[in-house]
Amino acid sequence: MIKVALLGNPNTGKTTLYNLLTASHEHVGNWHGVTVEERAKLYNHNGQDIVMVDLPGIYSLSALSYEEEVSIDYLLKNKVDMVVNICDASNLKRNLYLTLSLLEMGIPTLLVVNQIDRRPICKIDYAKLEDLLGIKVLHINASNKRDGEKVNDIILSLNEKIKEGYHQNKPAYLNEFELHKFKNLFKGQEFNPQLEDFYCVKMLEDDEKIKDLFSVKKEFGGVEKVAKRRYKYIDDVLSSCCSQNERIYGSSKFDKFLLNRFLAFPIFILIIAAAFYLTFFSIGAWLSDGLNVVLEKLISTPLTKLLINSFGEGSWIVGLFKDAIFGGLGSILTFLPQVALLFFFLSLLEDSGYLSRVAFVFDDILSKVGLSGKSVYTLLMGFGCSTTAVLTARNMEDKNSKIKTGLLTPYMSCSAKFPIYSVLGGAFFGAKNIFVILGLYFLGVFVALLVSFIYEKTILKSKEQSFILEFPPYRMMSGRRTMSLLWQNVKEFIIRVGSLILAMNVIVWVLSNFSITFRFVGSGGVSMLETFGRVIAPIFKPLGFGSWGLVSALIAGLVAKEVIISSICMFNGIEDYSTSNISSSIKDAASPAFFASSSAVISYLVFCLLYFPCLATISVLGKEIGKKWLFIGLVGQFAIAYITAFIIYRISLAIEMFGFGIVLGFIVALLVLIISFIVVYKKLKTKRCAFANKCPKRCKKK
Question: Whole-prediction pTM value?
Answer without folding.
Answer: 0.69
